[in-house]
Amino acid sequence: MSVDIEKRRRFASASRAFSPGAPINQYNLFAGRIELVNDVVRAINQRGQHVILYGERGVGKTSLANIMKEILEHGITVVKVNCDTEDNFRSIWHKVFREIVIKKESKGLGFNKSDTIEQIPLDGFINGLDEIHPEDIRYFLERISNVLVIIIDEVDRIDDLQTTTLMADTIKTLSDHSLSSTLVLIGVADSVNELIQKHMSTERTLVQVRMPRMSVEELGEILDKGYEHLKMKITTPAKNRIIQLSQGLPHYTHLLGLHSAESCINDDRDTINETDVDNAIREAINKAQQTIISTYNTAISSPRKTLFSQVLLSCALAKKDALGAFMASDVRNPMSLIMHRKYDIPAFARHLNDFCDEKRGPVLQKLGTSRRFRYRFINPMLEPYTIIHGLATGIISAEALEKLA
Ligand SMILES: Nc1ncnc2c1ncn2[C@@H]1O[C@H](COP(=O)(O)OP(=O)(O)OP(=O)(O)O)[C@@H](O)[C@H]1O
Ligand SMILES: [Mg+2]
């Protein structure tokens, strides 16, 4: 089969307009989040305030950090580094200072020698010290004339208690001395909450910004921006379907948005319809990450005929709070729709418990105290996968799904 050049061009543009595998790094593809961006920018502009940005996996924390460079005033230098499990206090600040360069002018000497500007990274400061303490960081930052925004992403990956304590102390000393530079720490909710509770609960200079899942409007904006870029359109039912399947997680909006565009382009059309979304679902299932597939299979597998796949799907479809948690009573409605008859909590309470057990992953985490238990998917990405899998295998029909929207 030969694909003509025009089609190839359209496929290529589609994969630029949607990025399921990577954070957003340019403002014109960044959707929604107006309030959150305002909160962060306001804190950055307040001397002595620092920011902790936290939320579930995949809600868009890194994307928001990436666009800061474009939206902050000229003259503010944004430095962004990532943490990993091997990092300690010294290695993190080494990465930060490596990114900060000062310009040094050297006068040209002799005939025809022109002046040169040397760019010097500042990590040499740290290399010269045997040990570094929060006070040293403050000392260096005070001596840099640029206004800096230092973004430290994935702080949840720091594995070492001493490092988190030192980071907390650094924020404290930077606030106490009212430095114009700002630290922005980013991480997954639970670990960052721990950090706050253990070390900084009383710290008023630390602005805590919680990033919730994206709203229906914000997910819609991702699709609108992407298709506008491609000069394509999407029908309202097709758009609503992608939004519902995404469960507030933008990765799936990008993934289904991209595969739907490809299906439409393949057919030489310009308007995406529900058939394209069906094709996209199949494609997403076929190409899903192996880790998600095996997590799903472990959760539902059973030699006998059981209700695990139906109950897991009902959990994925249950109404959730801003942190993705739901109660057993929230499972009732989707379960009854899937089973075409009324199902009450005792009929699936055991399944919920089992999902919290190692034997089935665990895939759910139980929160709170008895009678007020709430549940949450440990890997939020499993929720949209469970729903698209349910649709693709006919556990739930598109019509029933629409009733839950
Ligand atoms: N505001 C946005 N507009 C459009 N797409 C977005 C937005 N925020 C996030 N995305 C998309 O959602 C996906 C996840 O985003 P991102 O990597 O920023 O999330 P994260 O919270 O940093 O995830 P993790 O917890 O895994 O580090 C990416 O595909 C990204 O392109
Ligand atoms: Mg991230």
Helix content: 40-55%
Could you please say which CATH topology of the largest domain applies here?
Rossmann fold
The CATH class designation of the largest domain is Alpha Beta
Largest sheet: 5 strands, parallel
Average residue-wise pLDDT: 90
In total, how many beta strands? Answer: 12
Strand order of the largest sheet: 2-5-6-1-7
Hetero groups? adenosine-5'-triphosphate, magnesium ion
Instruction: Please identify which CATH superfamily of the largest domain we are dealing with.
Output: P-loop containing nucleotide triphosphate hydrolases
User: Helical stretch count?
Assistant: 18
Describe the structure.
With 405 residues, the chain is an alpha/beta fold. The chain has three domains: 5-20 and 215-286, Orthogonal Bundle (Helicase, Ruva Protein, domain 3), CATH 1.10.8; 33-98 and 128-211, Rossmann fold (3-Layer(aba) Sandwich), CATH 3.40.50; 290-404, Arc Repressor Mutant, subunit A, CATH 1.10.10. Helix content is 51%, strand content 15%. The chain has helices at 5-17, 34-45, 61-71, 89-99, 124-127, 134-142, 161-176, 189-200, 216-229, 236-246, 250-266, 274-286, 290-300, 308-317, 328-339, 345-355, 382-392, 398-404; strands at 50-55, 76-82, 101-106, 116-121, 147-153, 182-188, 206-211, 233-234, 271-272, 325-326, 364-367, 374-377. The strands form four sheets. Strands 2-5-6-1-7 form a five-stranded parallel β-sheet, sandwiched between helices. A three-stranded antiparallel β-sheet has the order 10-12-11. α10 (236-246) runs antiparallel to α11 (250-266). The protein is globular and about 85 Å long. The chain binds adenosine-5'-triphosphate and magnesium ion. Residues 19-20, 22-24, 30-33, 57-63, 188, 222, 250-251, 254 line the site of adenosine-5'-triphosphate. Magnesium ion (MG) binds at residues 61-62, 153.
